[in-house]
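User: Hey, my collaborator sent me this sequence without any context and asked if I could get a structure. I don't really work with proteins. Can you help?
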Amino acid sequence: MDRFASLLACLVFWALPLHAASLPNIVLLYADDLGYGDVSCNGATRIKTPNVDRLAEQGLRFTDGHSASATCTPSRYALMTGEYAWRRKGTGILPGDARLIIEPGRTTLPSILKKAGYATAAVGKWHLGLGAEKLDWNGDIKPGPLEIGFDYCFLIPATGDRVPCVYVENHRVVGLDPADPIEVSFKMRVGNEPTGKEHPELLKLRPSHGHDMTIINGISRIGYMTGGKSARWVDEDMADTITSKAVSFIERNKDRPFFLYFATHDIHVPRVPHPRFAGKSGMGPRGDVILQFDDCVGRILDTLDRLNLAGNTLVILSSDNGPVVDDGYQDDAVEKLGNHKPAGPWRGGKYSNFEGGTRVPLLVRWPGRVKPGVSDALVCQVDLLASLAALVGQTLGPDDAPDSLNMLPALLGEAETGREQLVEHAGVLSLRSGKWKYIKPGKGQKVHRNTNVELGNDPEGQLYHLGDDPGETKNLLSEQPDRAREMSSSLDRIQQAGRSRP
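Assistant: No problem. I've predicted the 3D structure and written it out in structure-token form, which is a compact way to encode the shape of the chain:
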């Protein structure tokens, strides 16, 4: 009996690394504010994105792939939790000092992969909050990514245009001098640092609206900050800094399955490209940082090639929401846009109920498993949790990921169809059902007063057939009232049910 037990233990011991070796590495490249039409594989002609195109040529390009929201924090929340963000209060665009909005212990995308044996890392933009109550940036910063399933993190805590303008590695601010403590406030001024509003002569990049508080690196931000001078980032170096951290994580974990969530800052404001990209696009800093983002993608892909990992790595590239041109700084983005269409053929953009708000680039590459091509399957980032759980053999509990559906066959190109229905989230909720789209009645501005993005608000509601009218130009509500009522009722049921996963 002892001999049999010993033999069984040996078999189990050897089976574990064999199973782990069969798991693909997973790299999620998550851009910020990158529109469907901002990459050349989706039709851009004024800008070329050869590394993004490389993924498209070697993998599957989706024409109907969606973020879970038309703004950043709710998209990231849904991606991590598999729950539509509109179901939870406090999941809107967060200030830079917000507490963590994902409860530790909850099943998340990284936790389910960690359970399957993956090394997990979050590198880049976070914007899901940190800490439990009022956060002390000078001590241990937790809970955060490490408490919801990541083994390692190197973070831009919120956004580049919000304080604090420092990096957080695991639980600490990087490079902080204890003799120069950080203080942050979004309610009142702290310290005596100059602000953009009072001292515009100190700025190298001026705001177009808002963004006129504490000046860091010659750029005024949202919020007030004092201290932490040795820890402050240099915007021009940000893309290189976070990409180097991502590459290092891959190198450290090349001999075991890993999950890298690499959330770039580009092309979010402030757009301050490294000098080697400045002026190269002919479209101003917005175009330049698209080139910079593409370079970051290339460096990750080159690392996988160099380490002979590309063949067993599932790479997914997407964006947290649609595009915005002027989002707070005078950076020539509007003046130099020319005939470039950031949202491609779709109407609207970031903040919008129209398709341009959530229909974003989505590319999937896995050599030998995903056949290169184009898919018009309806898929959403909220489904990554359930889909990747299925891929790695993990079972979700009944209360886990309430809106995440297993779309793995569609994501791998093994099925031509994806979701039957999808709730799109912006100012109001919309329901996609096949090619039909119903937008709930919405009050308020037609056009965002600061960004000039069409918001798609209509007090009567809207109905479009995207197959015949991809630009959402002909509202069919009056012509098909029964269909509109049916879709409205379906949307109400999804809202009231508290979940959409069976």
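In plain terms: The chain has a mean pLDDT of 95. You can pass these tokens on to your collaborator as they are.
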